[in-house]
Design a protein that fits this description.
It is a single chain. This protein has 690 residues and is α+β, with helices and mostly antiparallel strands. It is 33% helix and 19% strand. The strands form nine sheets. It has a seven-stranded antiparallel beta sheet with strand order 2-11-12-13-18-15-16. The chain has a six-stranded antiparallel beta sheet with strand order 19-21-22-29-26-25, with helices on one face. The protein starts with a helix and ends in a 7-residue tail after the last strand. Bound molecules: 2-acetamido-2-deoxy-beta-D-glucopyranose (10 copies). One 2-acetamido-2-deoxy-beta-D-glucopyranose binds next to loops. InterPro entries: 6-hairpin_glycosidase_sf, Beta-AFase-like_GH127_cat. Pfam families: Beta-AFase-like_GH127_cat. It comes from Oidiodendron maius (strain Zn). This is Non-reducing end beta-L-arabinofuranosidase-like GH127 catalytic domain-containing protein.
């Protein structure tokens, strides 16, 4: 964002702050509980180093090209076309939700123009009565996709002040209509069969009633106009509709109700759907902002805790192949869950400032997300498995409700939601990587190479973090500012006690993070340099059924399985799995077949792990980084080939403490996100026989 835009933004902020304050004076009405930390407007934070390379790949890959060729975006009903993959009409809004932050973070005029074409089309086609979107009948007008569209709009309004007024106006008109619909027995939210409603046959909208309020809260906080009471009531009505539909997440995040087992041993519902859950983790907090019911806070912590404890993937996401899968390394974890967990954890961190939420966001960002993408960002999986020795149409069915083709890297290897939703991951991660506490305390919350440029109390300020993190623990900040302020760096909870820092090349000191996990500095000179060395150690994750996972810092390490003869064919139509016609694909879109050409059935000795720097971890990283040859640091382990059966068309559950004999081999582990075929949950060798 250039200086002019920043000044403009500041001006709007100030102006609206006054409007808002006045509204609160004239009406002693309700206040939303503020976030502990404020976000910076989209565009203030940009990426550099490996993360910028990733965003460029994303912009030049599938995500940045869907607008031009993909039928569910380019020919979506939202743009006057005829293609939708479901009654929800959600595909183009999913796309919009990520193209806006991607376009503004990489500052790419092609993508900005895509976003603007969509904005212009949709706002100029807003219906007389205020409805946003292509639907014209009661039966097809479902609220859900509007939640995604409004996510895109609010980001747009922040990034492009020239569009703010127009966007806010459209949101108000829509909110007024929505209010009247919801008051009329939740029209558009709960289907009435007597009316022939057909906008949400699977109850996704009723399971996600907190998502629209996220944007309405933004409107209420920033641009309430004359509408505060109506906005507030609309938010309440969304929650009330969810309750009426039996989708109150506060009834689910309860001990004894929350499932400790997975399918097929549980009864499925909207709550056991993995993407719903990843989103539902935000529900109690969005509600808390309104009700101030203090019980919702421990409930949120428990919800996150149980989600990871009973259904967490080693890579930082949820195991659910549609519905929860417990801890099985055979089961699928959807790409949508990785990006929604990143978004939820960043949201919760910003609200509560609890360190583990940010650690969780990083873990999904550096493991689950990249593992699901081809190195060039032109193909993605629908589901990934923790142990995944091949990626192809499986000969049997390990998943609960995903086609056996679901772990293929392709265009739409199952439902197309991940085709249109994977793109939000890194752009939103970058956008939430710095936050503001109070008036002038800035926190680097999600670590990676990024730069923040902002204006605090009228003074320009920039913080640039040069780093290869998470591939290295070394961070170097160049800070330039014209005022005194506090700068804090979030210290991940895995960082060991010998982590150090120094300011302006003075002596190194030990890090002493405060109780929030923050290492804070008073910045008073115009130019300051801060260096931080986070010391990583190899961590062995909690055994699951005797098998272990290996971490080094935030990275999960996995067996580097070779797939020397990867092949591909044209992308298949997800509905009938026939080849898509040539006018529906591009030369870069493929569905890949990856078969292991090296051994994968190893048990390891977890005490034998050693690190190796393939190349200096502090020199410029390769791009694409999430490729077998990319990451600079590898781990070696003593291992033995064991009898490990194939079941359900894939690697069976790891044998429990298999007895091994004979010479061990040294096997190489690389970051999971780079190992498109991988074993990440290893049997521990019983070495009595060695
Ligand atoms: C203030 O709030 C009350 C109750 O929510 C509402 O009836 C009234 O219309 C509001 N007044 C203004 C000026 O918005
Ligand atoms: C309101 O909706 C419920 C289902 O959500 C339905 O049973 C009831 O008949 C509806 N009432 C009216 C007046 O339409
Ligand atoms: C607020 O309401 C008044 C009176 O209805 C109207 O004149 C004014 O334009 C409204 N302001 C905004 C920002 O909508
Ligand atoms: C407050 O939240 C708790 C936890 O969700 C819930 O059990 C309780 O009913 C809520 N209280 C009120 C007054 O809504
Ligand atoms: C679970 O909650 C406890 C305390 O409530 C906390 O110490 C622990 O870190 C949490 N675990 C996870 C995985 O969030
Ligand atoms: C995948 O294999 C299953 C049998 O396991 C078969 O029914 C299905 O047609 C195959 N799909 C593709 C895309 O080849
Ligand atoms: C830095 O370390 C050197 C050598 O240990 C010591 O002599 C010096 O006093 C230290 N400087 C400060 C400012 O602590
Ligand atoms: C911090 O890391 C840099 C680069 O790896 C190294 O030169 C320096 O000695 C480290 N400092 C400490 C105190 O470990
Ligand atoms: C995909 O398959 C469905 C079901 O056979 C069919 O209706 C649709 O036209 C196909 N889409 C394309 C783009 O070929
Ligand atoms: C390619 O992979 C298949 C297993 O899917 C294997 O049978 C074949 O030998 C491999 N070919 C080469 C040239 O490695």
């Amino acid at each position: 964002m250039n200086l002019l835009l920043l000044l403009l933004y500041n001006f709007i902020e100030v102006t609206l702050f006054h409007t808002c304050a006045m509204a609160l004076q004239t009406n002693n009405s309700l206040v939303l509980v503020p976030f502990r930390y404020k976000a910076f407007p989209l565009g203030s934070i940009t990426a550099s180093g490996w993360l910028n390379d990733q965003l460029r790949l994303e912009a030049n890959g599938l995500a940045g090209n869907l607008f031009d060729f993909y039928r569910y975006v380019a020919e979506s009903t939202w743009l006057g076309g005829t293609y939708e993959y479901s009654e929800l009409h959600e595909s183009a809004p999913y796309w919009f939700n990520y193209i806006v932050p991607l376009a503004y973070i990489v500052d790419d005029s092609r993508l900005k123009s895509q976003a603007q074409q969509f904005l212009d089309y949709t706002l100029s086609h807003q219906a007389e009565d205020g409805w946003l979107g292509p639907e014209t009948t009661r039966q097809t007008r479902g609220v859900w996709a509007r939640s995604l569209f409004l996510f895109g709009l609010t980001q747009y309004a922040e990034a492009e002040p020239s569009q703010t007024e127009r966007i806010v106006k459209a949101m108000h008109r829509f909110t007024i209509l929505l209010n009247s619909m919801l008051r009329n027995n939740f029209t558009g939210l709960i289907e009435q069969h007597s009316e022939g409603d057909d906008f949400d046959p699977w109850g996704f909208g009723t399971s996600r009633t907190h998502e629209l309020p996220v944007s309405l809260q933004w409107l209420y906080d920033n641009y309430p106009s004359n509408n505060s009471d109506l906005i507030w009531e609309t938010m309440e009505l969304m929650f009330a509709g969810g309750r009426q539909a039996g989708r109150d997440w506060t009834r689910f995040f309860v001990e004894g109700v929350f499932p400790t087992l997975g399918t097929p041993n549980i009864v499925t519902s909207g709550f056991t759907h993995g993407v719903n859950l990843a989103e539902g983790l935000r529900y109690p907090t969005v509600l808390y902002r309104m009700t101030k019911n203090e019980s919702l806070i421990p409930q949120t912590f428990n919800a996150v805790n149980w989600t990871y404890l009973y259904h967490g993937s080693r890579a930082g996401s949820i195991i659910a192949d549609e519905h929860l899968g417990n801890l099985s390394p055979q089961r699928g974890s959807e790409t949508c869950m990785a990006v929604e967990m990143m978004f939820s954890m960043a949201y919760l961190y910003r609200f509560y400032g609890v360190n583990t939420f940010a650690d969780n966001a990083e873990r999904a960002a550096f493991n689950a997300l990249p593992a699901a993408l081809s190195p060039d960002w032109w193909a993605h999986q629908y589901v990934q498995q923790t142990n995944q020795p091949w990626s192809r149409n499986l000969t049997a069915q390990p998943y609960f409700n995903v086609v056996p083709y679901g772990n293929t890297f392709g265009l739409e290897p199952n439902f197309p939601c991940c085709t249109v939703n994977h793109g939000q991951g890194y752009p939103k991660f970058v956008a939430s990587s710095y936050v503001l506490e109070g008036e002038s305390s800035i926190i680097h919350s999600l670590l990676s190479p990024t730069t923040l440029r902002t204006i605090i109390r009228g003074s320009e300020l920039s913080i640039s973090c040069e780093t290869n993190y998470p591939f290295s623990g070394r961070l170097r900040y160049s800070i330039s500012c014209g005022l005194e302020f506090e700068f804090c760096i979030r210290i991940p909870s895995w960082a060991t006690a010998d982590s150090t820092f120094r300011v302006d090349a003075n002596n190194w000191s030990s890090l002493l993070p405060n109780s929030d996990g923050l290492q804070c500095f008073q910045i008073s000179s115009r130019k300051t340099t801060i260096e931080v060395n986070l010391t990583m150690a190899i961590n062995i994750g909690e055994p699951r059924n005797g098998a272990v996972a290996i971490y080094y810092g935030p990275l999960l390490y996995a067996l580097d399985i070779e797939y020397a003869n990867a092949t591909y064919h044209g992308p298949l139509n997800f509905t009938d799995q026939t080849s898509l016609p040539a006018d529906q694909i591009t030369p870069e879109t493929h569905d890949w077949v990856l078969d292991a050409t090296s051994e994968w059935r190893y048990a390891i000795d977890p005490t034998s792990l050693t690190l190796q720097e393939r190349f200096p971890a502090d020199q410029d990283l390769k791009s694409p980084i999430w490729d077998r040859q990319g990451p600079p640091v590898v781990i070696w382990a003593d291992a033995w080939v064991v009898s490990w059966e194939e079941t359900l068309g894939t690697a069976g559950l790891p044998p429990v403490n298999p007895v091994v004999s004979g010479e061990s081999t040294r096997i190489r582990l690389i970051p999971y996100g780079a190992a498109k075929l991988h074993i990440a949950e290893f049997p521990v060798a019983n070495m009595l026989g060695v």
